[in-house]
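Below is how a single chain appears once it has passed through the pipeline. First comes the sequence as given, then the structure the pipeline wrote out for it. We keep one example in the README because the format questions we get most often are answered faster by looking than by reading.
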Amino acid sequence: MENKEKTKDQRTLLWAAMLWMAGTLCGAEVPAPAHLKAGQSQGKLVLQWTAPKTQGLQGYRVYWKRPGADRATCLTPQPIRDTEIILGHFEIGKTYEVGVSSVDAKGVESPQARLKVVPKDPTLPVPEGFQVEWSAGQATLRWDERDLSTIAGYNLYLADEDGNPVRKLNDGPVTESRIDLKNLKKDKLYRFLLTSTDRHGWESLPAPMLEFQPQALAVQESRASLPAKPSAPPNGQWFLTCAAGLDLPLSGRSTYSWGPAGSVGFGFEWFDGLSLGLEFQKTDFSTINDSGFLSETGLAFLPVLRLCLLPKGVRPYLSAEGGLDLGVAYSDAGEAVSLDPDVRVAAGFQFEMAKDAYAFVEGGYNLILSSNGTGRDVPLSTGLMMGL
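Resulting structure:
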């Protein structure tokens, strides 16, 4: 009889142990919330987290531990369904501990996702212009300068993927608007937070988190060092030109003084900086001297080849033209008409005024090959080139 009672007690203990193990295992299977993070909005603390990928959760319990307290207080004994909670009644600059756990349908609670929170002073200015620069294998964090009469400096933190500060990188407030980072691992992803701080140690809300990988920045630097791809006007499309200026006769028309000149044209640029077009040019000369009244009108229809020498900015260029010049001369002796070959070379500068619109100025040397002698002119003009 005694042996039977002993066997019964052993079975009871074994069964209790199995139930305890089962309960423990069941509790361990309840996944904790992920990506717990804290923020501030309108003077309140905002806790957010991501729901675990599991079914049948009853909700979440939120725990709040104040500075100096022995243990945390459960703020939601009845689990809440939301993945966000807004908290108030805190002191700026103090360290609070928060925890969030999942609760399944049986009331079994998961381990807590924990986070330390230091409420920020919303009246302090948030740093602006927080960015990273990469040069010669080194990263430099920069931000906009601010008058240090209102703040003591800045604090820089390493952050996790949820934007929570993990480790403070400076001992005292940083008073400059830059920090050089050394010994970074090229293939590691770095995240940084920057806050302003006052003389009491209170901090502002952080600037937007900065995230970068040194290797990616090095690739960008190497690409930027390559020759810039030309972006001449108007690349790979039709364009119109119009110009006005002066034509100064050197010989052949030495009887005449300078005269106004103008041109209109069109063309196509198939490579950046290299274009081929056609221009219709008109030049007028007139004077009165001892021989009487003299006047001449020149009309030319010329193919134009233009080559820009620089890919961007103020771009010098060369051009060559060749065609026919129709000259009509009027004098006291009567009227004379000629059709002569016309060759022109020119050099100038062009610069961008707006998208697909460029201004240019140029000077040239013009030869009109006539049976009566070669006319030499110096045309000076300014105009516009516009893409269609």
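Residues 320 and 345 are 5 Å apart (CA to CA).

See the next section for the split statistics.
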